[in-house]
Each structure stands twice: as C-alpha cells, then as structure tokens.
Write a structure and sequence with these properties.
The chain is built from nine helices and eight strands. The protein is an alpha/beta fold and 224 residues long. The protein has two domains: 141 residues, Rossmann fold (3-Layer(aba) Sandwich), CATH 3.40.50.1000; 71 residues, DNA polymerase, domain 1 (Orthogonal Bundle). The strands form two sheets. Strands 5-4-1-6-7-8 form a six-stranded parallel β-sheet, sandwiched between helices.
C-alpha cells in the first residue's frame, strides 16, 4: 500500500453523520418513514443533474422542494410546516459510533483532516461540534456557493486548492460509490467505508481501500 495521505477529505452525509433518525421525522409528520431514503436520493439526483448541466443549487433548497413534493404526494396537508420539521432534523443528527475514535486515530497518524460536503458547511460544523470533534478538522468545506456539486472534478479540485494539497496526496473517504468515482477521476486516492453492507458497484472505479469503519481505515493506513 502507498504511504498515508497528507490530507483526508471526508464526505459528511451518511459517511460521518447517521441519518437514520430522519425516518422518525418523516413518520412524525404523518408520512411513511421509508420516504426518508427516497427523499435523500431525490435530492442527490437533482443536484447531480444540475451539476451535469453546469449549474449549482443549494442542498437546502433542493431538499425542501423535494420534501414538499413527496409530502403532498402522500396527502400531508400542511406540507410547509412538515418540511420545516423534517429539515430541523439535520440539527439533531449525531456521528456514527466509530467516527470519534476513527477521527482521532487518523489525526494521530499526522494526517490533516477536512470535510467536503454537498450540504451546508454550517450543518457539518454543528455535527462535528456536537461530537466534540470540530478541533480535529482544519477546514469544514462545502460546495455551496463555491462550485458545482460533487462528483464533478471542479468540486474536488476547488477543495484541494483551499487546502493546498495535490490530488495524489489526498484521500477522499465516503460511503457513496459515486463520490469514490468522482474523486478517483479527479486524481485523488479513495477509501470506501462499507456502512450499508452492500457490495461496491462494478460500474464505478474501485476504491484504493475498503474499510468497515473509520477505525479500520486508520489501522490499514497505519500499516502502510
């Protein structure tokens, strides 16, 4: 294996944050809980489509619009109030159980840590602050207001310019194969965290490292 990277860029939604409680938010407003995953996929689809067309839109805007459509489709009457209640759920999310120990272990290896999210930087900042991990990250970066969404090369290279690290010394860590693909095609090293238990899709560029958790990733990087 190659030497440990200089910088790790973490995806945030689902990679660091446990988004399963969002199902309860949907159920609380009178909608089926399974719509939470459909909603998140819907938001990603629209963000990717706009990025492919050369446009960018805020995650929050797309999330609110998608939630409103889905809520109305299942007969929720006060959709605006329901959307507000669902969106407020981002402020209560916690990190996955392995994240604190994994982040600290990666920092102990001398690796610089930052995030790169399609969502709002404020949401990521608050997530890490609640977990007591904010000081472990030198930057909390979001594409919002700066560039097109990941997985465009523009997004990754923008983040690398902010951090002053070349692609081949940077590793993108994510649970999403589409993020791994975008980073690999942008010249970054990649690590896939297998939180879902699913196999990595063969249509995407395989990750350099497959890890069961951030602790596992740190152990593999320590072995070099």
């Amino acid at each position: 294996m190659a030497p440990a990277p200089t910088l790790i860029l973490f995806d945030v939604n689902e990679t660091l944050s446990d988004m399963s409680p969002m199902q309860e938010r949907w159920q609380a407003v009178g909608a089926p809980s399974h719509l939470a995953s459909l909603w998140f996929a819907d938001v990603l689809r629209d963000g990717f489509a706009l990025a492919a067309a050369g446009r960018a839109e805020r995650f929050t805007t797309l999330a609110e619009q998608s939630a409103r459509r889905l809520l109305r489709s299942v007969g929720v009457r006060d959709a605006d109030a329901a959307v507000a209640q669902i969106m407020a759920g981002f402020g209560d999310l916690q990190v996955h159980p392995d994240v604190p120990d994994g982040v600290r272990a990666l920092g102990d290896l001398g690796i610089r840590l930052a995030t790169l999210s399609n969502g709002a930087a404020a949401v990521a900042d608050e997530l890490l602050t609640r977990a007591g991990l904010r000081d472990a990250f030198e930057q909390v970066l979001s594409v919002e207001g700066a560039t097109r969404w990941k997985p465009t090369t523009e997004a990754y290279l923008w983040a690398l310019e902010r951090c002053g690290v070349p692609p081949d010394r940077t590793m993108l860590v994510a649970v999403h194969p589409w993020d791994i693909e975008g980073a690999a095609r942008s010249g970054l090293r990649t690590a896939w965290v297998t939180r879902s238990g699913e196999e990595f899709s063969e249509v995407f560029t395989a990750p350099e490292i497959t890890a069961s958790s951030l602790v596992d990733l740190a152990q593999k990087l320590a072995l070099g």
